[in-house]
UniProtKB/TrEMBL annotation:
Lineage: Eukaryota, Metazoa, Ecdysozoa, Arthropoda, Hexapoda
Protein name stated in the entry: alpha-glucosidase
Gene: LOC115630952
InterPro entries per the UniProt record, alphabetical: GH, GH13_cat_dom, O16G_dom_2
Signal peptide: 1-23
Keyword match Ligase: no
GO biological process, one term: carbohydrate metabolic process
Record's keyword annotation contains Hydrolase: yes
């Protein structure tokens, strides 16, 4: 199928080209100091997200734990991963599986002890793996001592949270102070019988929002960060950063007009509860604190990466604001989750990839998040056939790659979990008729290590969420044994990232059949067919005087082999196939 657009003939279904050339190193050349590994160790890193509850259970209670993670460090060593970030491990009643923290300085007993944590850090450090922890500043648990004291109006804690009287209607009914909505549906205000006031909770009722307008709160949270830095972590993933401040006049938010459901979070345009400019000042404050810490202590630069689903301008300000004041090392780029999907064509990919690079302030590292514990997995979002090509894309884009556990194997969501087995609170809240698509349990199923009971994750009779029954075929052990596997492709891709050209080369992304000016002696070219039909393409323009493309990485089901040479003018790609190639000037 072809169509005319702007005078160009485009193949529909389109193929995506990513090319990096050594010839134009200038554009992205970095100074020696910038390349200093102590300071910029993270700029080309692959960060692997561990969801501790689901990674490895060492004591047979059906729940993953720290000792379990330590026991699996070899998986990272073999795969080539040198940095991991852990979803929360702190004391919690687990209403939001650790994102509701009842003591920021304690470890949840089912995850282990401080000795287990120290052991993890020591063994990870010895294996060359840095550990990043999740930091959840927006809210604590309603079981946190601060909240209990605040609810009791104990001196010093009265304003630790956002409390309001609400309004009394003419008929005497008390209602919340305004129309603000919880991300997980319904009012964002929860009545507290004890204090006889509403408290703000933008997530579940068990997650009251801390009040950052109170300097004592900021100080308490600074101390939490320092506490964990002293325990040897390399930095923090910062949760829900864009929710931290709200408008102090409590103004009603305007209707978004995108849905008729008044309970839905999308019902309102969140101009008073999200992305307030104060967020930048907070991040800058923590940046100074972490930089000082790094200067005054041995070890790598301590870093921050933020979670904030927001428009591109807002997110870019987290790198640095308009005045050049530094914020976090990188705000997560969720474009592969939020802006692209299995209907996107090559132009969409190119456009969205370039958008990040164009908007990003000069001198920063781009990053690409392929999946996480809040969204369907890659194989379920884009299709099982795309697993290798999406990893090729992730790994050959410039900058930082972020992988969710199990994505190196192509794990798939287990959507068929019964309502009785569902534990994700927002899904339980919407009831049996609607839980299935709301639930985040399907992407949190245990890591599939082998074909033993519970995929080798646990010896328990029941795991905290069911194991995906496809583990019998899809597991790490089987993929290690197989001559070709997603895991092996992933390993090859990580190795490839050591190439100077992939770290510092100039980058260009093109949809097929657009004119490309890319000159260079030795370039890496990633070619991805994002369509569901076979495509024959000619990349001789792209390959310039190269006689051949040498295949560096091919997918599991590819007709090609690594090392094989292809003529740039005659490349046939199966549906969703990806190839990572090197341009070669030699005749053979
Ligand atoms: C974002 C976390 O990723 C998600 O899992 C959690 O439910 C919310 N923040 C609330 O903490």
């Amino acid at each position: 199928m072809v169509s005319k657009r702007s005078g160009l003939v485009l193949a529909i279904g389109f193929n995506l080209f990513i090319a990096l050339s050594e010839a134009s190193l200038l554009a992205r050349q970095r100074s020696q100091q910038e390349l200093d590994s102590k300071y910029n160790w993270w700029q080309h890193e692959v960060f692997y997200q561990i969801y501790p509850r689901s990674f490895m259970d060492s004591n047979g209670d059906g729940i993953g734990d720290l000792k379990g993670v330590t026991s699996k460090l070899q998986h990272f060593v073999e795969t080539g991963i040198t940095a991991v970030w852990l979803s929360p491990i702190f004391q919690s009643p687990m209403k939001d599986f650790g994102y509701d923290i009842s003591d920021y300085s304690k470890i949840q007993p089912e995850y282990g002890t401080f000795e287990d944590f120290d052991e993890l850090i020591a063994n990870a450090t010895a294996a060359g793996i840095k550990v990043i922890l999740d930091f959840v500043p927006n809210h604590s648990s309603d079981e946190h001592e601060w909240f209990i004291k605040s609810a009791a109006r104990e001196s010093g804690y009265e304003d630790f949270y956002v409390w309001e009287d609400g309004k009394v209607l003419e008929n005497g009914t008390r209602v919340p102070p305004n129309n603000w909505r919880s991300v997980f549906t319904g009012s964002a205000w929860e009545w507290h019988e004890g204090r006889q006031q509403y408290y703000l909770r933008q997530f579940t009722a068990g997650q009251p929002d801390l009040n950052y307008r109170n300097p004592a709160v900021l100080q308490a949270m600074d101390e939490v960060m320092i506490y964990w830095l002293n325990k040897g972590v390399a930095g923090f993933r910062i949760d829900a950063i864009n929710y931290v401040y709200e408008n102090t006049q409590l103004l009603d938010e305007p209707l978004s007009e995108t849905t008729d459901d008044p309970n839905s979070y999308d019902y309102l345009d969140h101009i008073y509860t999200k992305n307030l400019p104060e967020v930048n000042e907070l991040l800058q404050h923590w940046r100074v604190m972490l930089d000082d810490y790094s200067k005054n202590n041995d070890g790598p630069q301590r870093i921050m990466m933020t979670e904030g689903y927001a428009d591109v301008n807002t997110v870019m300000n987290y790198y640095e604001d308009e005045n050049g004041t530094q914020g976090v090392q990188f705000p997560f780029n969720f474009d592969f989750i939020s802006s692209l999907n299995n209907n996107s064509d090559a132009r969409d990919f190119v456009y969205i990839i370039e958008r990040w690079l164009i908007y990003m302030p000069h001198g920063h590292a781009p990053n690409w998040v392929m999946g996480n514990h809040d969204n369907p997995r890659v194989a379920s979002r884009y299709g099982v056939q795309t697993v290798d090509s999406m990893n090729m894309l992730l790994m050959t884009l410039p900058g930082i790659a972020i992988t969710y556990y199990g994505e190196e194997l192509g794990m798939v969501d287990y959507r068929d979990i019964s309502f009785a087995d569902t534990v994700d609170q927002p899904a339980c809240d919407v009831g049996i008729a609607n839980y299935k698509w709301m639930s985040r349990d399907p992407e949190r199923t245990p890591m599939q290590w082998n074909n033993d009971t519970n995929a080798g994750f646990s010896t328990a009779s029941k795991t905290w969420v069911p194991v995906n029954p496809n583990y019998l075929q899809l597991n790490a052990e089987a993929q290690k044994q197989a001559p070709r596997s997603h895991l092996k492709v992933y390993q090859q891709l990580i190795k490839l990232r050591q190439l100077e050209v992939l770290q510092n080369g100039a980058f260009i992304a093109q949809a097929y059949n657009r004119e490309v000016e890319l000159k260079g002696k030795r370039s890496i070219l990633t070619i991805i067919n994002v369509s569901n039909s076979q495509q024959q393409i000619d990349v001789s323009d792209f390959a310039e005087s190269s006689k051949h493309l040498v295949l560096l990485v091919v997918g599991v089901d590819s007709q090609y082999k690594v090392g094989q040479r292809l003529k740039p003018s005659e490349i046939v790609l199966a549906p969703y196939e990806g190839l990572v190639t090197r341009l070669s000037l030699r005749e053979k």
